[in-house]
């Protein structure tokens, strides 16, 4: 174990994909937590779980669609049957937004995005509230730096993530008396395989190198670099841990200083 910040804690991560979801799981395990992995694709959950178990960690994989009431209730039951408690819920689930102007985005797309990002995360939080109240636990919502800008084509994503932030702040107020903390991590760029591929495509289009695309992008941040997935995940671990016991209703931006709030 690298550090004991989440020793003996049970952390449920919803929306475990190859990017940030994976890093949140591995960093939580490295901090001593038992990790419950939930998303729809069982094979991916098992890959991440195998990585954690190879390093000596404990996991439970529960294939779950967070837009489905029965699936979420089954996740709660399976978690409590296996580990007997829940200390942390991290709501990370993500699907690629429309990337069209709001004028050209059809309502069904916006509705699907709200269904996942707002109602899916609310359904998860409601379902785990009783268990989290028992442990005076924590919820961490994964948001985005889209909160900090209004660039064209990000409208649908911004609508959903802004509603998620509003919901997170209200949940902090409503669940605070039960001892449950609700905080947000808002990453900007994440230097992961997806972004490496995308910068490669931009480089080809403009006849420059991927490194030049990276440098031009990173130039807008104070630290002149882009955060790695594990660096975002460690901010999540911090907010989930007892080190953040007096912090609730807050948003931690992790973007190497691209935006100041
Ligand atoms: N990637 C970035 O650059 C970036 C930047 C800023 C913020 N963020 C935020 O960071 C978070 C993670 O993004 P990521 O790109 O790194 O994603 P990721 O963790 O690699 O994957 C997220 C996973 O969510 C799962 N998911 C989607 N719909 C679901 C549903 N209905 N029920 C359960 N799980 C579902 C998908 O797995 P299944 O298909 O298997 O269900 C997907 O693989 C998101 O909240 C995103 O908004 C990302």
Class by SSE composition: alpha/beta
> What are the bound molecules?
NADP nicotinamide-adenine-dinucleotide phosphate
Q: C-alpha Rg, in Å?
A: 18 Å
SSE pattern: EHEHEHEHEHEHHHE
What does this structure look like?
This protein is an alpha/beta fold. The protein folds into two domains: 10-190 and 228-254, Rossmann fold (3-Layer(aba) Sandwich), CATH 3.40.50; 191-226, no CATH class. Helix content is 48%, strand content 13%. The chain is built from eight helices and seven strands, in the order βαβαβαβαβαβαααβ. The chain has a seven-stranded parallel β-sheet, with helices on both faces. Helix 3 packs parallel to helix 4 (107-135), helix 4 packs parallel to helix 5 (155-175) and helix 6 packs across helix 7. Bound molecules: NADP nicotinamide-adenine-dinucleotide phosphate.
Give a quick precis of the structure:
The chain has 261 residues and is α/β, with parallel strands linked by helices. It is 48% helix and 13% strand.
